[in-house]
Amino acid sequence: MGSVLTDPDGFVPAEGRNQAYDTGPGAGPLRGTPLAHAEMNALGAARTAWDLGTLTLWSTQEPCSVCTAAASFTGVGEVRFLAPDPWALATGNDGSSGVTGTDDQPHWLVAANVVFLRSVSAAGSEGKEPETLVRCRDLEPETARLHDSLPPGLPPSTGMEAWLAELWPALGDAATARRRLRSDERPHALAERPAGCG
């Protein structure tokens, strides 16, 4: 997934993407390691001389405890995320970062989770559905259904904007269904339900 550091004016001085599953030649000492999370790569692109206290670290999914600790250790002013982490929800580790999410971007929440589930599916063992996706079918049925309706494989990294533009109406439908399920249909049952699959 992705992460950026932004200044108060919205300028992005550093960015990173998850490279934990990258293989083959490439740059960066964390590439292909369990530490190569998007947030770690964004923080690794920051310079020691920068005043990180004035910056916000944004992430597509809720940062894990390692990334949250790294942001705290480096003195980042604020950490925000777009969507709950599907892996964390599927394993019962959701919400442990204490980081503030954003609830006012339902299209982007579903978009972040669909892309995450696509990457989990692409990295998984052939013929075996990843446990994160299995669990998200219960936790986030709208997002899982949208994921299942897409052709196999990852969206093209060079054409992500066009891919999202084409998918935008379906993302809106899934976001509306997700919001409706959480607020209208079963309010008492959902009071105990996690905020999302990612």
Structural commentary:
The structure is a single chain. Helix 4 packs across helix 6 (141-149) and helix 6 packs antiparallel against helix 7 (160-185). 45% of the residues lie in helices and 12% in strands. The chain has helices at 38-45, 65-74, 86-91, 106-123, 131-139, 141-149, 160-185, 187-190; strands spanning 2-6, 14-17, 56-61, 78-83, 100-101. The chain starts with a strand and ends in an 8-residue tail after the last helix. It is built from eight helices and five strands; from the N terminus they run ββαβαβαβααααα. It is globular, with a radius of gyration of 17 Å. With 198 residues, the protein is α/β, with parallel strands linked by helices. A five-stranded mixed sheet has the order 2-1-3-4-5. The longest helix is centred in the C-terminal third of the chain and has 26 residues, at 160-185. The model is unreliable at 186-198 (pLDDT under 50).
Low-confidence stretches: 186-198
Order of helices and strands: EEHEHEHEHHHHH
Mean pLDDT: 82
The 3D shape can be described as globular
Radius of gyration computed on alpha carbons? 17 Å
- Largest sheet properties: 5 strands, mixed
Strand content: 5-15%
Q: Which structural category do the helix and sheet elements fall into?
A: alpha/beta
Biggest sheet strand order reads 2-1-3-4-5
**What's the number of extended β-strand segments?**
5
Count of DSSP helices? 8
Percentage of residues assigned to helices: 40-55%
Question: What is the terminal-to-terminal distance?
Answer: 11 Å
